[in-house]
Batch of 4 targets.
Target 1
Amino acid sequence: MASRDGLQTACSVKERHTALEAVLGSATFLRNPRLGKLLSYLCAKSFAGEAASLKEYTIATDVFGRPADFDQSTDAIVRVEMHRLRKKLKEFYEGEGRDQPIEIVIHSGQYAPEFVERSAPAGWTNDGVSEPLIPAEVPEIDTRSRQRRRWILVSIVAAAVLFAAGVWINVRLHARASVLSNRPPESGVAVPGAGLPTWNPIRLLCGRTRSQRDREGNEWGPDAFFQGGSALEAPPQPIYRTRNAFLFLGARSGDFTYKIPLPAGIYELHLYFADTSYTPGISMEGGENTRFFNVSVNGITVLRNFDIIASVGPNTACERVFKDVQPDRDGYLHLMFNRAVGVPLLNGIAILPGIPHRMRPVRISTQDSAFTDKSGNTWSPDNYFLNGRVIAKFGIVSGPVDSQIYEGERYGNFSYAIPAAAGTYTLRLHFAETFFGPDEQGGGGAGDRIFDVYCNGTALLTRLDVFQEAGARHELIKTFHGIEPNAQGNVLVSFVPRVNYAMVSGLELIDETPQ
């Protein structure tokens, strides 16, 4: 193996595993589990002698759960994540891993990792074991003794790795067993006393018999706990404002109920709808007033005469959020769907741990993967958008907040419809100009990008010029208070160009209700 100085060096299997474990156990990668998963996969293939099989397609399907029809020309997930991985490896070896004797290097344009012996820093012996250098007047430590200590160290690390792997496998098996043990009979009627662990969110694919994992890594289980209605399946087709179209291609339809066992506590309920039955035809008419129904939670009506198409349009994801949800006195959450005109339709149910009186924070990054910023906040991948395009930005952005927020950008004429429960919210928008500027690709500067931002039809920002306010490669955060969702249960944020394209890198929606 070639080291950085061009010499050929040998790197044992134990040394490679130790190098990998040092990276995966670091704070840098614990904050970025998605990148840890990617690195583990690449190294596992390398350890197995299968580095030649590492291709963009196999990485996309094996690591990121992309479907068999993955098209790398339209989905840059692998290239974006590989860039982030190389950046985080560099950050690790320049920081907390600066004393590591072996460096994992993945060259640009390649996927196979290399394990490179690094130059010994001050305070290291020639064999790479971290020990004080021995003064000339002190007799040299016996070679066998040093080797013995080295093997003990390696054995301890290897044992720790095996133990961690065993714990991980046990947790996964336990979680899997928990889900399986709580499945209802084939009829879909809930089993009294059956419940899911409070730490395990419930996600159900209505009308489906198989589980599936979404692009954020969450597992959705098959339909359960229902009574009545029938299962529907729609052919593959575009579903707007979602990254997970599969969620809306199956449904439970008719008059039906759900009786979901829940431990005592506060929960956040998400209901998912999309009407694919009525699309504009020759007469250019839609499907309004052809299907509307009522939805109740524990006997209280929460949606009355609910018309999916009137709320969001045809073939469009509709997500309604309800906070402060609790099981009824019998220990079940009761959902009821009753027809008014046409038949009720439901695609999915998610029940998440709730925050009393507040909706869980929403943080959206215009990137294809989740990450945790330096403040410990989790940012979700891009979602809820309509129109515009996304690009990855690899330059440095200055500012007090984690620059990783600005590694992506949605630009064009576009909008976000962020689902929100009733209440008032703080909306924060994150911008950074990385295209226009004297030293940037687009040249110019002030006046080269100007756009407006609206929220639920009201202007928040008029003639915004990010470069003029912050300069090139500096973050600009705009904060707005007292934001309320519209009648359709969304905070609709629209970005409208005036000169060149509008753009944004991140959106935050934080409930202002006191706990």
Target 2
Amino acid sequence: MVRDEIQQTLQKALAAAQQKGELPAVELPALEVLRPKQADHGDYSTNLALVAAAALRKAGVASNPRSIAQCIADHLPAGGPIGAVEIAGPGFINLHLSVSWLQQQVERVVAAGPAFGNLHRGGGARWQVEYLSANPTGPLHYGGARNGALGDALANVLTAAGYQVQREFYVNDAGNQFNLFAATLYARYAQLLGREEPIPEQGYAGEYMFDYAQKLIDQHGDRFLQLAKDEAIAQLKPISEALVVASLQAELARLGIHYDCWFREQSLYDEGLVDQLLDRLRSQGDIALRDGALWFLATHYPKVDKDEVVVRSNGMPTYFASDIAYHYHKFVVRGFDHVVNVWGVDHQGHVPRMAAVMAALGLDPARLTIVLHGLVKLIRNGQEVKLSKRRGTLVTIGEVIDEVGADAVRFNLLTRSPDSPVEFDLDLAAAANNENPVFFVQYSHARICSILAKAEESQLPPPDLSWLVHPSELALIRKVLELEEQVEVAVDKLSPHNLTHYAVDLAKIFNSFYRDCKVLDPEQPHLSAARLQLCQAAQIALAKTLRLLGISAPASM
């Protein structure tokens, strides 16, 4: 990474100055290299001289930060990433990347190919990202698309950063909601076969239940009507779950989402893990009987102001009881080093109680990160869309994909940080013009591919990158190299939204380069060869960014 190389170069310059006795040898805190807010302050800036001066004063040595900065600048090696240096203000060192070094990086990007942008920080640690988990009781509401796009892109980014990532969907198939679903499905199944059968009270009234019932008839005929109702519903539960999960898998595949594991909540009960862990927590004083119900005493732990019911007074366990066992299974049984759960913001009250669960289980709460995301509003003609024309009850992910396409769905839902709400403008997302950011980015990628394809017909010399000196060429190289830092930012914040903005910026800078610099010029074959390799580097960076976001990178449009 560019910033890492600059840090190493500065450290060598400091060490050289100390070795020559020009600066006293003192222990310094971690070196900080940042991008200045103002472009005319250089590509990077460091407060190394100010930090060194403070350390020297603490050691009783009088020092001038500007003099220290100049001393460090004097020892910067030639031929490295740093070109011009400016001492600013009280002693900041502003750094400009060397033109010759920038030119060399084009070859590095091309040589790395699709691996460009990958980091080595994860070291193969086993992380799990669990996202979009829901009751298997119907098609997914469009709001779930944000959860899915966010979790999937996070898994992509973490994989690129060197983590071993498992993607998981937690199927909430235990408890009363799924029982209601199976009973409702039986009623709709019977109705389609001509039998009067009311749906249960608080059952699922959506028209989609008839779709599931028809699939059941197509696969099994009327055989469940030959059984007693209770027996039929009992037999329908696993069949109906498989039916809905298969439907969810097909629906999510349209959004480019695939999972490594579909984990069943019911398995935690079948294995006895829920009872085992409730007994353990009761024995260690973390569960108490109150008003006929069992409560997890979360308030025994820091920053928690509410206890949580784990078994209701009717003897039915709650979702929280399952969550205790589920997270024990993640960390202890399956041995993940870190887990990221992607939840809607309406679950924020659950977060501190999950930290208490981790502590009660003897696990470090820092190993569990819960990413909360805001809600999504669909907007058409400036007005919020609340109802589905086809279903009359909800707008599904599939319906939104039908209208604007999967790439537009993912890109638009990833443009904001998770904690910010999203207004998804359907008219803009469907527009085939440069006002639509995903169209603009994909069209720019297709333009690069077209240039590279056309160049295959040309006979050009091997690229000599020293020809790349135009400001627009150098600006494009700088932006391409920035991808590595953008991946790091996405990992640090566990939010890939910065990558959507980077993709737009990279596309804009490429188009400025294309406007200012003629790529294929028969009269300047050496310049054309160099610019073509720069186009190839830009294509690699733009395609990689789109892949990280889970969006296609078309070669033509």
Target 3
Amino acid sequence: MTLARVIGGRYHLTEKIGHGGMGQVWAGHDERLARPVAVKLLRTDLLLAATGGTDPTTADRLRHGDDLRRRFLRECRTTAALDHPGLVTVFDAGEEGGELYLVMQRVPGVSLADLIAEDAPFPVERAVAVAAQLCAALAAVHAVRVVHRDLKPSNVMVREDGRTVLLDLGIATALDPEATRLTLTGVPIGSPSYMAPEQALSAAVDPRSDLYALGCLLHEMLTGEGPFRAPTALGLLRRHVDDPPVPLRDLRPEVPATLERLVLDLLAKRPGDRPADAQEVYGRLLPLLPAAVSVPQPRFGPLPDPARPYRYPLQPQPRPEGVAPAAPPRVEPPPFLLAAVPNPPAPAVPQGPRPAPAPAPASAPPVPAEEDFAAACARLSDLVDAGRRPEVLDLAARLLARGRSELGDGAGMVRTVRTIYARTLLQERRHHEALAEYRALAATAEGGPHGRRALEPRHRVAECLEQLGRGAEALTEYQALLAVWPETEPERLLDLRERVGVLLASLGETEAAWSWLLQLLFDRERRDGPHHPAVRRLRQTLDTLQPHRTNATPWPPRA
């Protein structure tokens, strides 16, 4: 398959983002509506084998294939009719070149699998928030007599605003006429780490099988590991069938007893011993969810927080970095006033020195003058949403050259374009170029390079310097930021302190780094508890420093 392939006459496939035994998932672009999509391709020959479609005659095989296609399209219609914010939207389905295809919304964000790898074990409120959102989605699915069968972290996306979205819905059901199982060389549908005992035994499944998988997810989010481990898939399935799970509070004592009881109930071996449905599970999670607050939500952090939708329900998204508030519309005076003043005075132009312009990006051809600058900025935003970084960089560079010439470096739209350009350079690991752009953003910020609006660009400057191996310069910048960063952002202050300590260690200041990071560990542990990922990371760093110390101060015992 090539990148030039187009499915259904309109879906341009751009990049493979997943695959399995019976098909592939591609990132794509809907050329008719100009929006990003995900396209799942399923090979009918493998599906026929998987569902027993190995009839002895060609006529029987064709008839079986037609039945499979009809079931697939019928189930796609069922899932497309579901309207829930926690479910991926189905746009289209069909068949082309011997493959069934399903076109879905491409959900931006981070997979729950990546979030667990980056940040587990989760705080209790965060894990509960994920589970509660999945319960709401599962309740909608189960209401139309569909069972997901493969609930696992990689099938859950967490958007930037913390909203979770359940992916890959309905495919298993679509391929199985009895809505029980789909086997390929005797292997049941699902992932062994999250498979209910009845699934492992290839028995009939129902919505309570999805609830068992939800219990596995909760256990993993709260402890960093699934409830069972084994060296082989067969051994893992056997443990799901035979072994009791370890109670959560044996592994993490601060977990509420009610949550431990719920997870044990979800992981019951017999479906009848589990909660009756997703609504019941949600009701038991409800008292543990974070309460709504009456303040505007802060800017999004580097990782999405699934508890955010509960803390800031229905609030507008925070303004992105570098985007100024919308200016009030200009109101022109009525014509009779203009007639009364033949030569109205020109509006006052603020005087004073302007910041020195930053060097324009190299070899950036200008945006055509006939294209409206605001329209070109909107086109840039669409490219960002579609994740088309090379095109973002090209257009942003050209817009930046034109905007600086026409509007000046300090104009709001120019700063927005520069912010997009700098952020994309950073994502592409072009740190030297990103450094120049972030320095320009800091220099042209309202209030000057030492003002409040320059802090975020200066933080990115320090990150770039660190990535470029210029540790001493990065350390100086981090220390300067630490002295002026507002106390209202304690998490950022703690992160800055950690970067200072790590850089001290990298520059050979072992004792200074040890003392600095040890105090940070005490502060972090007192604030977040002994199992927080940052606390564990700090302990690991101190363990690494210990053999290189000249001072014999003993390393404190673990909490």
Target 4
Amino acid sequence: MNNAGQAIHIKKEILVRIIEAFFSEDFEEQTRLIPYIMRPKGMEVPYRCCVYKERAIIKDRTIAGLGFSIEEDDETVSLAKYAKKALERTNINEKNLTVLQAACKGCSTNRIYVTDLCQGCVARPCLSSCKFGAVSIENGRSVIDDSKCKKCQMCVKACPYNAIVKISVPCEDACPVGAIKKDETGFASIDFAKCINCGKCISACPFGAVHERSQIVDILKAIKSDKKVIAMIAPAIAGQFPGNIYQLKSAMIQAGFDDVYEVAQGADITANNEAKEFAERMHVANEQANEWLNTWVNEGGYEETPAQTEEKNIQKFMTTSCCAGYNELIKKHLQEIKPYVSETKTPLYYTAEIVKKDFPDAITVFVSPCVAKRAEGFDNTNVDYVMNCEELGALFVAKRIQIDKCEKLKYVKESSKQARNFCLTGGVAESVKASLKDESSVKPCVINGLNKENIRLLKKYASSGECEGGCNLIEVMCCEGGCIGGNANMNSQKAAKKIIEELSSNSEDINKI
């Protein structure tokens, strides 16, 4: 198991122990003991320099698992007190991520570096490849001026000896918006004004130093209360656990939920609404353009009024709007594309609306592999809490529930095959296309993951007002592969995709739902 895999394993073990502690006779004391149970005296230390360092990091992970920020911890507060505070908490915090400084390696600065492999060759391809004057020759060898270097890596590609390398900081490289950087202490720090909650830094850090602030204690309190607790499972969940989604519903009810709704139910509504919106935008635009053109030809030409000129700047494309990470990107970094974004709400929005209508006084819990959905849940009054796949998996382990041994329970409303494919790259666009009377009017393209390159591409589309290749429907997914590429998934993308495609192949077409 690699470092990242080990970090996930430790995080899940801590979540299991928090849940077990919650259902014990003394939550506070059992929570306090977690670092000592996991790293007892005399145990061989697996990762860090000593058992005390290991316990310190486990304590920080437990603090995050209880829903608190490590940045606000002064190290004097015991886990027992944090457990008590979690029980007393009535509101969740909108900042979803926290950095465990004790786990952070404080990686070397992200830069381009000339190694000892440099041969000082006569051709000097590194020198000629740099457009910024950052490369010079000193004592017959290449040297890079960090103040001039733009990290374009042209010198890295040009060197015939592979003597020039990029020293990477994984979390910084993964972040598409530059929201995570070293602070004055030399450790990673998140700028929440920039952060789009994509979770890429969580997956990228090989030390597991970036952590979600869990809402698991709040959810357990709700389950233990006398109120109904309704779970809403994202389409991606179908590919994360053994058994099928009907057994999953049964397992979740055994775990304490009163009922379970598929968010794919809301995806059907999203697809239909987005299809209508797309048809209206494209149809109206084409009719207006033809009308003006005919008038201009018939009357021999005339000078347009400013209003007519503005109206003729018709949209040539529309982007989808169901990805929470993409919506955060628009809000904080890409407002110029907003006029081209569908105004249709997300599948979660519609599902939560249905649940609250069916159970007005219920507590709703959305289950998702996505950090950004925590932000969406925070902004939606119909969504009380959000839990990820790891947390749900930990709940099953703590409760000793085997999903594939559970009975199958039907959902109140079955979802379409297209809606169940929403979590796969291309699935949203295909759902919209299938919902239209004239599928040939749709020329989709897919932004498969938000990275710096794809963000530049979206900016280009926004500034030019059109998409390359004549595409008119752009599906934007924050994670590569779709939601099954989210940071808190339990299964590999390949395995998850196979399970979801098998489920969807046995589901009704969207036009028959």
